[in-house]
Each structure stands twice: as C-alpha cells, then as structure tokens.
Amino acid sequence: MLLAVLGALVAAAERGGGIKIGGGGGTGGGARDGGRGGGVRIGGDGIRRARTSPAPPPPRAPSVITAALVVPHKAFGTRDYTKAEKAALAKLPRKLKLFSHVRLNVTLSTQGLTPSPMSILDSLCKEFLAVNVSAILYLMNHEQYGRSTASAQYFLQLAGYLGIPVIAWNADNSGLEKRASHASLRLQLAPSIEHQTAAMLSILERYKWHQFSVVTSAIAGHDDFIQAVRERVTALQDRFKFTILNAVVVKRPSDLSELVTSEARVMLLYATREEAADILSAAGDLHLTGENFVWIVTQSVLGSMQQPNKFPVGMLGVHFDTSSSSLIAEIATAVKVFAYGVESYVSDADNIRHPLGTRLSCSGAGAGEARWSTGERFYRHLRNVSVDNEPGRPSIEFTPDGELRAAELKIMNLRPSIGDQLVWEEIGTWNSYPKERLIIKDIVWPGGLHTPPQGVPEKFHMRITFLEEPPYINLAPPDPVSGRCSLDRGIICRIAPETEVAGLEAGAAHGNSSLYQCCSGFCIDLLQQLAEQLGFTYELVRVEDGRWGTLHNGKWNGLISDLVNKKTDMVLTSLIINSDREAVVDFSVPFMETGVAIVVAKRTGIISPTAFLEPFDTASWMLVGAVAIQAATFMIFFFEWMSPSGFDCSTGQESKRVPQNRFSLCRTYWLVWAVLFQASVHVDSPRGFTSRFMTNMWAMFAVVFLAIYTANLAAFMITREEFHELSGLDDPRIARPLSYRPALKFGTVPWSHTDATLSKYFTDPHLYMTQFNRSTVSAGVTSVLTAELDAFIYDGTVLDYLVSQDEDCRLLTVGSWYAMSGYGLAFTRNSKYLSMFNKRLLDLRSNGDLERLRRYWMTGTCKPNKQEHKSSDPLALEQFLSAFLLLMAGILLAAILLGLEHVYFRYMRSHLAASSAGPCCALVSLSMGNVLLFPHTISGMFLFALIKQVAFTNQSTSSQIPTYWFINQIELILYHRIYNSTRLLRFFALLQ
C-alpha cells in the first residue's frame, strides 16, 4: 500500500501534477487531494503570513537557521530529546564563526513506529517547511524491517525530492534500498550494511574460511546485502581469496535444499529476527546446523537481542547499540555535524547569494521552487565536515556516498547462560579505523565446542575410475612383500574387477600385481593436490572393459558408461572433452589442451650412387669437365707444341724418328687429371716456359676446386633421414589412401576419441584403417618403429610424450593437429563436486601449478617435431658407399679399356703401322707412336744382328737353327712390319 502511494506520488511528480510546492508568500500546513495536475497536491488553506511590503533581498545568511529533529515517539521521551538537543547546542564550540552571524534552532518532531503517508506529509508541510528548515536530523531506533522501514524510506525519499539534506541515524538503515534512495541528500551516522559485511568477512578471514554461502530472506535491502558481499570479496581478493558458493534468497523452506548439496559450512544470514528463526529451524531439519556449520548474522537478526532460544548455540553476529540511550547520544553528534556544516557553508564566499532558508511551501500557490536548489550545495558542505569525536575515537567523516567513514561494530556470540537459556554476549569488536581491526575473545562454537570448525566439509570419499595412458597415468607393479608403492611409483590402484578382490585381505591383495598396481603420472599428481586442497579420500579403480567411452549401437561403453550408470563419482585420465560426451556427463574446465596428431618414424635411406657428384650441380660439372679440363689440356699442349724449347715440330724425314721430347696430348691429359686430383703418380712435365706457367695456373684452379668440393662433400656423403611428411588428417595420402601405390598404412586405437572423430568426419579412411588398428597407443608406436605401420594417429600430447621418450629419437609428429579440444575431469550429471573441482583447477592454472606439472611429465630428451641428427657416432658403410661405387665403376671401365686395348693390338695396329700415321699418333700418344715407329728404328740393328748370327752359325757345326728361319724373321720385320713383344724377345734370345 505504501509503495503504491509512493509510486503515485513519484508518477504524479513526473507528470507535473504531483507534489507541488510553492513559495507564494507564506507558510502553511494542511494537505488536501486535488489540483489540476491529477496527482497529490500539498498546500491549501494553511497558516499564512501576511505581507504588507515587498520582501527585501535575501541577506548573506538568515539570522536563524533551523533544523528539524525527528525522533521516535514514546511516552515521557520528549523531555529527554529536548534536553539532549539543548545540551548539544550548548556544547557547540564558541569559536565557530557562524555564531557571529546566525543562531541555530532545532525543531523537535516525534514519529510513531509506522506513520501513515498523510502524517509524514503533514510533518513535512506543517512542521518543517513552515519554519524553513535547512536540514532534517532523522534518528530512529526501530528495527521492524517492515512498515517502519518502508515509512523511513518514504520519509527520506520525500525529503530528497524536496532537496532538503538529511542527517540520519536509523537502526534499520540496511533495509533502505539504495536504488530507491539514490536521489536523497542523506548522511548516515549509523554503521552501514557495507560495514557489517566487512566485519563478517573479517571473521572468515581470521579463521581461514575461504568459502561460504549467503542466505537472505525477502527483506528490504537483501539485494544490496548480496551486492555488498560480492564487492567486499572482490576488494579483498589480493589479500584473501573468498569463494561464494551459493546466494540463496529464502521465500519458502524448500529453498534451503540448495545448501544441502553445497560444500559450504559457513553461512552469512541477513533477515529479520522472525524470518531468521524460521530459516534456522528449516536448516536444522535439513541438518545444516550443528558443530560443523557456522551461521553469522547481521544486525537485523540480533535487533534488541530478544528470543535467542530460537537460534542454535554458537552463532555469531555483528551488532551496534540501538537502545534509547544510544539514540539520545547520537542527537549530539547529529547537531554537531549540522553546526559544522553551517559553519563551512557560511564561511564560503561563493554562497553569499544562496541563503540557507528553504522558503518552500506546500500551498501550491505562487511561483516558488519545487525543489530547494541550495540543498545540494549545503549537502556537499555537510558531507565534507570533519567533526571531533570523543577522545580515542576518530573524527566523524563521511564517504562520497554519505556513509560514515569510521565505524565500530560489536561481535556477538550466542552462548548458554543460566539454566537452558541462551544469551547474546559480546566477545569482541571490529573497527574500520585507522585500519580494519578485529578483536575477539573466547567463543563458544556450534555444538558447544571450544574449537572452531574447519569451515569446509569433513573429508568425503570418492570412487574414481581411470584408464592408463602415459604420461597421464602410468602403471607399475607394487612391492610384492609390503604391497606398497615407493615414492616414485605413485599410489595403489585396483586394476582387477571388484568381484576378484572381494573377500581378500587388503595387504595380501595389494601385493598381487594382477589385482593392484601402482599408479603415477600427471593425473595422479594433480589428484593428490586436489585431494589435499578439497579434503577428500578416494579409491582408484580401472575401467573394466578397458575402453575410453564411445557411443556404440546407441549405448555408451568404457569410462563414460561408468559415469552414465553412476558406478563411479569421477573419471580421471586423459579423457578428451567432446560434444557427444558432454551431452551425458559433466566435464570440468580443461586442464590441458590437445588434438589429433600423427606420428611417423624416420628411416635411414641409402646414399645416392652419385653422392660424390652432388657438391656441384650438373651445369657446374659440365663446365669443369667439358670446358675447364679440355681448355687447360689443349692450351698446355698448344703452348708446349709452339714453344721453341718445347716439342720438336720439324717435318720431313726427321719426323719418322722417335721424338726426343717425351710429351704428347695424352700425357697432357694425364698431367691435367693428376694435378686436378693431386694424384701421386709419375707425370711428364712440359719444357716450355709458357706451358709450365699454364700448368701452374691449372694447379691453382685445382686447389680452389678441391677446397670447395671437399667442403661440401661431407654434407652429401652421409645417409639422409627420410619420413612421411604428412600435412595432417587432410593429407591426400590419408584422406584417399587407396589412390596411392603403395597405400599408406596407418591406424589408431579403437573405441577412442580419435577413432570416433575419424569415423565421424573421415569415413573412407576409417574403414580402410581398421585392419591396421592397435589395441594400445604403445603398440601402435612400436608398429611404426618396426615399419609395420607408416603412421599412427592419436592424441597429440600423448604422441608428443612418446616421441620425447624414444631412445633413438626416430619418432616425430608431423602435420597440424586436428579437432583441438582439451582433457577434463568427468563427473556424473549434476554432480555436486563439479563446482569445487572447477574452482581448484582454475586456481592451479592461475598460480602455474598445471604448467609445472606439464613440464615435469612431458619433457623428454627428444623433440617431437623434425630435428637434425647431431651425434658423434662412427661412420657407417652407407655414409661413404658412393666412394665404393665410384671405385667399382672405375674397375669396370678399366676392364673395358683392357678389352679395347686387345682389340687394337690384334686388329688395328697392323693397319696403322702400314700407314704413315706414326708421327701423328705420337702427337696424341707417345706410346702409340713408339709402337708404330718401332720397326723403322730397329730394322738395321736386326739386320746386323742376323748377319752376325748367320756368320757365327756357319762357323759352328753344332747350330740347330736353319737358315730359312732367319730369312723369314727378317722378312716379317722388314716387309710385313709385324711386331710384338713376345716374338721380339724370342728373337733376341736366339741371337745371343
């Protein structure tokens, strides 16, 4: 009803026919409905002040400045209020400059617990505007948080619309919605809801309670309380990390069921005293109270601290005194703030034309202001005051929002008293000055204990299913005697079905490696950190069917099946997150990224037979062989032939004899080749100076040529590492394997994420590769090393790890990763553990723990990508095989030349000898020339020897050689010119 009236007032004001305040000559009271605007009109036939002459210009400040004091109505209370107000004015320092110009006056007005809107309007129009109040001192200690809070909100909002500053001290200020009072010019002397939340969180910080839940009723200001808690948590995040697990607005008892599945053990409660009793009663029925649960309540729950027996023992609360004596004491503070504000205002020369008299009227007549324009100016001076307080306490100052800067709250504890009674007892204080400080004495904790609860759930037990895959989970046998795992082997985990270990003694069963193994790896280290931080125990069990979890014939298998059927609480391994799995289970945030990759092996190829030629390209070899060698040979021979001291180039009959200079074109070739390759063989040097100079220039060329050749030869004389350079799953050799001959052999692990991805997006390759699949990734990598497979497709991070652990560094991953995703912890649908694990995983990622684990477990000696082979191993035969091939080619060529030599001597030499080509052949080859010219040289010698032998034979009677034989030999030599070494030797032997 009140909100409807307020809405009508606001709407009418926005239409121009709402609250009409005029200043037409006098002040009056009374209020009546009507007016042309159709809204609520304040004014009418009230008290009017006659005017006989025009009003003079406003003075610098009025002689009397009035403030209205609004206090609760109670019997025999007016005298106490008046006494306190007069005492406050009397105690104002005489040194204030305002006393030389003005006199302060305070008009007292009392207000009931739930005043009606009309009475509030009457007090504003008849009592306050009639005396031109410059500010309202609003002090209330009601804590009903119902109609009384709504009345206070209405009063303060109307004052804000009028532009009149308000200095307030109301116990229920936390129930005033800031969204509705943002336009008010209000200073709050009581501790605000922000102070209460700061004090509550300081208790959590003292006892290291990091996580909590916020519980409120539908009380006014509950949204502001939740927002204040969130803002405070954000402000403290660098000093102390809080986690708000739940924010529950309780409208019915069933709303608390959200806390049953929560891990919160600390609750911050904001409600009225009656609502808090109902909430805590329902919480007790849900077992949310007791020695493990801490409830911390606000001032609204404590109130006057009555009826504490409805609350559980051990509760904590924040409180400030709202008794009548405290209210009377705050009157002096409010008056002092008002006086200091007036002092600041009148001392400012800029305000000389802005008097502090409101001069507003509710009559609606005249052309007066609808809102006091000077009010905001005066409010700024009030907000900026600094008023001295009691000794030992800070000065009274305000924040830009008008809240008290320095506040003090009492920390209360609900504990047993005489008999079965419970009482709220002060156990400490919280101060926001000079810096926040919490002082607490002994506390009776929930359940009557004298030690604080942990603030987190007691250790809970989880069944965790896994599937081994290095380096995430490695398996190793436990100690057969003790049945335990060493520090470097991890923790014990069961690999056999539960039926096989049922009834066995734990110690003996743990020593059986067929039943239990030691689990270690990245995921195990991660699990131990999570267990330590979250406080839970666990049992590690291997999935029975040994599959990762894919949808087959409409049913899930493997790890996902255990989660769907609720056989386990969590799956911990290198389980990839994908859309199909997310449809049936809940995944945590990823703890590592991955994708589908390809691993291949490097093969040591046979060195090329032409490796010794590869330091130069074909054009270079052609330039050396066809140009350089030929040019050098012919130029050396030409210079030697043309040199006067070189080759004898005479003609005529002397050309028939053997030349004295042992040099020819073939010997020039021999010289050029010997110098080029620096061969240690006998060569004939030219005699001419020019040809010798040319020979030296060729030698210099040979030095440069060999230096360049040998410098590059090592790079081509070693074996090359060959591998399949695949671009990824889109590579044609994988996407269309049957289009190539020979087809690439590749596979994966069946029933894995990779297998499901290939079957979904690469149908043809998936059908082809089923014949090459392997049961485990280790078997697949081994098949690649042994050349049974050309490639293996699997998770990228797993393959990178196996590549880095390869002793020979023969493995490498190729191509780009496909279907990028991540590994996550898997939970059953709507698991209560998901949020807490997500929070811890994010913390581990932000502080670098996940990265440290990755570096520890993923780093190996070999790099997963392409790398150069850098080693000092002895050279193998393959690395200089081309040299042997060159030697073999030389032997074959020499054999061919030997055959050609026999052909020449048998079939061609006699024809050349019969011709006159001997001298010309000597130019090309000296040996050939000597052979052809040899009969002319030795014919006279043979003739003389034969004659001598015949004469000697005739004298000897014992000679057995007939004369006709000698004649035949001479004929063969002189006429037929048939000569060979064997016949010549036999002939000379007979002559001796």
Main sheet strand line-up: 7-6-8-9-10-11-12-13
User: What is the CA-atom radius of gyration, in angstroms?
Assistant: 56 Å
Count of individual beta strands: 29
Question: What is the beta-strand fraction?
Answer: 15-25%
Give helix % range.
25-40%
Mean pLDDT: 79
Low-confidence stretches: 1-62, 649-660, 868-872, 974-981
Q: What is the CATH architecture annotation of the largest domain?
A: 3-Layer(aba) Sandwich
Describe the secondary structure blueprint for this structure.
Blueprint (H helix, E strand, L loop, with lengths): L1 H14 L48 E9 L5 H13 L12 E9 L5 H12 L4 E8 L6 H16 L3 E5 L15 E3 L4 H14 L4 E6 L5 H14 L7 E7 L7 H4 L5 E5 L2 H13 L8 E4 L1 H4 L13 E4 L4 H23 L27 H10 L24 E9 L5 E10 L5 E4 L19 E7 L7 E3 L14 E4 L3 H4 L4 H5 L5 E5 L1 H13 L1 E7 L8 E2 L2 E2 L1 H7 L5 E2 L7 H4 L3 E2 L4 E10 L1 E2 L13 H25 L22 H13 L11 H28 L4 E2 L9 H4 L10 E2 L5 H9 L1 H7 L7 H9 L5 E5 H9 L6 E13 L2 E2 L6 H13 L2 H10 L22 H34 L3 H7 L1 H30 L7 H14 L4 H11 L1
Parallel strand pairs: 1-2, 1-3, 3-4, 4-5, 6-7, 6-8, 8-9, 9-10, 14-18, 14-21, 26-27
Antiparallel strand pairs: 10-11, 11-12, 12-13, 15-17, 16-17, 19-20, 21-29, 22-29, 23-27, 23-28, 24-25
Helix pairs in contact: 2-10, 3-4, 5-6, 10-11, 17-18, 17-19, 18-19, 21-22, 28-29, 29-30
Please characterize this protein's 3D structure.
The chain is of the alpha/beta class and 992 residues long. The chain has five domains: 2-49 and 60-190 and 324-383, Response regulator (Rossmann fold, 3-Layer(aba) Sandwich); 193-319 and 407-448, Rossmann fold, CATH 3.40.50; 460-564, 3-Layer(aba) Sandwich (D-Maltodextrin-Binding Protein, domain 2); 611-716, Orthogonal Bundle (Helix Hairpins); 915-991, no CATH class. It has 31 helices and 29 strands. An eight-stranded mixed sheet has the order 7-6-8-9-10-11-12-13. The longest helix is centred in the last third of the chain and has 34 residues, at 881-914. The N and C termini lie far apart (159 Å). InterPro entries: ANF_lig-bd_rcpt, Glu/Gly-bd, Iono_Glu_rcpt_met, Ionotropic_Glu_rcpt, Iontro_rcpt_C, Peripla_BP_I. Residues 21-62 are annotated as: Disordered. L-glutamate binds at residues 581, 754, 795.
